[in-house]
Amino acid sequence: HDAYSNIKWGHPRWNTIPYTVAFQGRFNIHPFCFPVFLCPQHQNGMYGLHQGVHHFNSFDGVQSLPLLLGQANIRTGIIGKKHVGPGPVYPFDFAYTEENNSVLQVGRNITRIKLLVRKFFQTQRKEEEERPFFLYVAFHDTHRCGHSQPQYGAFCEKFGNGQSGMGRIPDWKPEYYTPDQVKVPQFVPDTPVARADLAAQYTTVSRLDQGIGLVLAELREAGYENDTLVIYSSDNGIPFPNGRTNLYGSGTAEPMLVSSPEHRERWGGTSQAYVSLLDITPTLLDWFSIPYPSYFLLGTPTTPVSLTGRSLLPALVSEPSPAAWHTVYASQSLHEVTMYYPMRSIHQGAYRLLHNLHYRMPFPIDQDFYVSPTFQDLLNNTLTGQPTGWFKTLQQYYYRDRWELFDLRSDPEEAVNLAGDPALAPVLESLRDRLLKWQWDTGDPWVCGPDAVLEDKLEPHCRPLYNGL
Ligand SMILES: *[C@@H]1O[C@H](CO)[C@@H](O)[C@H](O)[C@H]1NC(C)=O
Ligand SMILES: *[C@@H]1O[C@H](CO)[C@@H](O)[C@H](O)[C@H]1NC(C)=O
Ligand SMILES: *[C@@H]1O[C@H](CO)[C@@H](O)[C@H](O)[C@H]1NC(C)=O
Ligand SMILES: *[C@@H]1O[C@H](CO)[C@@H](O)[C@H](O)[C@H]1NC(C)=O
């Protein structure tokens, strides 16, 4: 969660697993975990966060990954953060989540996580007839903490560090960093406050990283290392300005590591293929040889739900042709219930195009990001007219253009919007068409916005509003 997209590959823990392929054309879709494994939020109905007052749930008819696996007699387990609902749509045989545990314990206490993984494998072994399994371990690190448990620090980096009042996590050797040691991503303001904030997050990276090591050791101990597909990814960028809740690269680029004992061809290799979380369900169904059922959801009464992702397994055998694996999409409508800001984007080859549907509204700020030292510092500096150390102004961040087009070769920072550049008009048009096609294919209720209304009787079509947009 909120994973360390700013930490480079080749982290020591991963070097111990020989059979890994890292995807570098990595990408991902907000918001959050399970529903996106299947189809984008505008299709599954879970338009924002699930928990608390936000209370979003996906449609009752969604054929989720754990549901399909359960029907195929695969044992399912979840440890850590769940944040999806309703319950019956996401059934697990073994569940230790924030629904009935402390999220600090099941999501950040790596000793507790280790023991739960062990328990899952012990009960697996006890089964009369051993079934294949699917275990989802959802770390809460490296999420922010300042809004919910500030006593443990801005990232809960003190939780379990053995200091007075912080408790101890026996398996964790905290790694500490000074503000001058951190690498400030280009999209984060380079100030002493932001550096200290990043250093705190780095400490939780050490907890996450050591936790992954423990989970993999349990897998080995249980004797499953040579018949288990391991996938590591995250669901959004770091919770810093321009990061999480944005569809820029800084909000969506994620680690994606896939480790297969069955696909030896590219062990230790790197792929340039563009992949997304929408590929997880097709990959797992492929791994278990389960077909995807044909069914309909409310939003798409005429078209069956189709998976727009694809199995990653072929990419473990040989590098896919760049022309075939060079497009990924992203979709967000809300984060918290108050944060309505629908956006759609396409990343194809060198270009990223974003559609900010309600661009005349200020971009919304989430509660835990608001209280973060980095954002408070940015607000204070902006208010007092001090240098912010940031590559854009707060005004630019709040008020965006409707269309944003970036050439990632010359502008990896996504600082220069080329949507108005006449030389790129054909690129803009082609990307816009592709994005719209994907929206139609995935039954996006926002497909006609913001200047038309979708009428879906008989043949779905857009009726103009003449609202000047
Ligand atoms: C915790 O919740 C899950 C459902 O999410 C349920 O299967 C499990 O039995 C619950 N465990 C306890 C101890 O209540
Ligand atoms: C972490 O979990 C272990 C095992 O359940 C427990 O002994 C330890 O006290 C927990 N640490 C914290 C900080 O809660
Ligand atoms: C897995 O494969 C490795 C390398 O071939 C071997 O050393 C190890 O013993 C195997 N583990 C099991 C549980 O079979
Ligand atoms: C921002 O300003 C407020 C009010 O002056 C102050 O309390 C707070 O400490 C400042 N925060 C940062 C991060 O500078």
Keywords:
single chain, 469 residues, alpha/beta, 13 strands, binds 2-acetamido-2-deoxy-beta-D-glucopyranose, N-sulfoglucosamine sulfohydrolase activity, Sulfatase_N, Alkaline_phosphatase_core_sf, N-sulfoglucosamine sulfohydrolase (sulfamidase)
What does this structure look like?
The radius of gyration is 22 Å and the shape is globular. The protein has 469 residues and is α/β, with parallel strands linked by helices. The N terminus is likely disordered. One 2-acetamido-2-deoxy-beta-D-glucopyranose binds next to helix 12.
Please give a quick description of this structure.
This is N-sulfoglucosamine sulfohydrolase (sulfamidase). The chain is an alpha/beta fold. The protein is built from 14 helices and 13 strands.
